[in-house]
Each structure stands twice: as C-alpha cells, then as structure tokens.
Task: structure prediction
Amino acid sequence: MLSLTGIHTFYGHVEALRGVDLQVEPGRIVTLIGANGAGKSTLLMTICGSPAARRGRILLEGEDITRLPTFEIMRRGLAHAPEGRRIFPRMSVLENLQMGAITTDASHFNADLERVFALFPILQKRQSQRGGTLSGGEQQMLAIGRALMSRPRLLLLDEPSLGLAPLVVKQIFDVIREINEQQKVTVFLVEQNAYHALRLAHHGYVMVNGKITLSGTGRELLANAEVRSAYLEGGH
Result:
C-alpha cells in the first residue's frame, strides 16, 4: 500500500532522513520506533508532503505521491493524526469531526459519525463541548476520530500514547487494533512506547538518526537483544 525508497528529507541544510526504505502492506499494522529526535515524525510529515522529500520516491497504492501537495495526498485515502493532537481547541467536538470529513462525500457523514462514536463513546457525550476543554486522553480520541472521518484506507498515527495515563494508553491501543481488524484500515504507527507498539504491530522498523537500522515482525523485534536494551529495559 505504501512504499518508500531512498527518502532523504532536509530542514534547510540539516538532513533529517537519510535514505529511508520502508513498506506498509495493506491490511497490516506497521510500527516505527526510535528515540526522541530520530526522525520518526519527520517521516510521517514527509509522507504527507510537508516537508517534501528532496530525494527518493513515495508510492501510495502504486501512485507516485512524492511531489504532490498535501491536500492532494489526503484525497487519496490517507489520514494523519499528528503528534500533540493538534485539534481545534475553540471548536466543539462535533465541529472538529466535521473538519475531518471535509474531503469526503457528505452522504457518508452520519454513518461515519456513528462509527467514531461507537469507538469513542465519550466523544458522543462531549460533542457540544469545546475541544480545548477535553482531557488529554479525550483529545487524543478526538484526533483519531477526526482522522477517521475522512474514510482513510491508510491511517498515520504519531505518538498516540504520549502523555497519557496507562489505562487510557491501553484503551487507545485497543481501539487501534479494532480500527485495523474491524474497519479494515491499514495503520502506520509511530510510537516511543515500544513495548505496546511492537505487541500490536504485524511488522516493525527501528529508526536511529534518520536511518532504518532494524526491521522484522513485532515479535522478532520484541525478542531482539538490541531493541530490548535500547527501548524496553526498565519496564513496559
């Protein structure tokens, strides 16, 4: 579904991604782990076209999207729930979800809204509440729900567990699994919580300083001594 070959991304003269090769197969959950500052979020933003890759190719379902503007990429069945949630704090929950549906046929709106509310019942209760007054966990649910309102075939999730309580983290990861298994959405997940991410993922990649250094199934990476030492020691 998604194929990256030789991706190089720069911020000015600083090279943030250095020849990244990566595949996301349809129907799978693929995770990318790595330390803070490794380039994980930059990779997701590069897929979305901002910043654009300076070298390399990005294919989405066989189409070269490397040079397309972000709004054109989003119209091709991709959605991004960014790090830090980036909801519209002064808009209501319902208005945030309406913004997520802006690129889709309006005839699907009610059905898609019910689907999001089934995943996150608290959003239905809070639908008239301003997004900025929600808890951190509720804002993360809203960010994911907003992305789902665009009916994506590929969902990019950037640090969905960041700053959340353990019980909320478990709920978020359970929902990610449900989105993949029940709604048949392919998921590319960037996470610092390596234990939960690799347990969930069919396949995983490790990024260090803008390069992919390891890849394998989630189970293989969980058992890898290098991964355990760098990302899993000291608890889950």
